[in-house]
Amino acid sequence: MLAVVVRKMPGSVTSIEISRRASATLPMWTAIAAAALSFTLPSAPTLQTTLAASPRSPPLQLLASRRDALSLALGALAFAPLAANADGQDPNDLSRLKKGLESIDFLLANWDKETVDPISGDDSPDRVRYFVGLRTTDHPLFQVDKLLTKAQQKLPDDADIELWIDTVEGFNSCLAKINELAYTSSFGEYNPGGGKGQVRKYLLLAQEQVVEAEKDLKAIIKILNI
To answer: Residue 55 phi/psi, 5° resolution?
Structure first.
């Protein structure tokens, strides 16, 4: 059997050794799982911790930290299971942002019609996800995180980086909430204690987030001067 030995090394680094010693207590995979669970890395300070510890830190340093954090966050969103890989979407085409805004504007202007199933007449929450790029690979806002990562590299020299970061974070937060609320609304009728009233409740909450997403996307386009 394989035996796993976990040792704490200087600097809070955990050393994991796997040898072919006999292990009378743990099967191989149990031992490996136990070692993996005990593996820890030194925690990095958050932006709030850094601000609290260094209230007089140079603004440029703080901006760089937030910019790096935003880049990491946008990169992480690429792995979110919202849909399949993009089909022919150019992450350098910033005109997609304006086309995406047109899609959101159209949804809000025709909300009652576009969020109702034309056949059954019931609410159709999943349609909301389509208009913000969370359903199909050919929508201009599909995988918008990659687009915004590229856009950040093309910010005008006089751009307010703090405003950019706050706006992009707000936009991504709205998309995540829309995705969750629309999905929850889709199954509201079948959940315990649910019904058509629950479907409508979450659909209206999703609408509020679409309104906020529209504001943020308009601000993003304005910052980019496109």
So the answer is: -65, -20
132-168 per-position pLDDT tens digit: 999 999 999 999 999 999 999 999 999 999 999 999 9
Is the domain of 28 the same as that of 55?
no
Q: Decide: 112 and 160 in contact? Cβ < 8 Å.
A: no
Instruction: Quote the tokens at residue 197.
Output: 């009233």
pTM: 0.63
Quote the CA–CA distance of 1 and 21 in Å, as a whole number.
7
Residues 18 and 77 grouped into a single domain: no
Residues 103, 77, 137, 186, Cα dihedral to 10°:
-70
CA separation for the pair 204, 111 (Å, rounded)? 10
Query: Where are any strands of DSSP class E within the chain?
Result: 3-9, 13-19
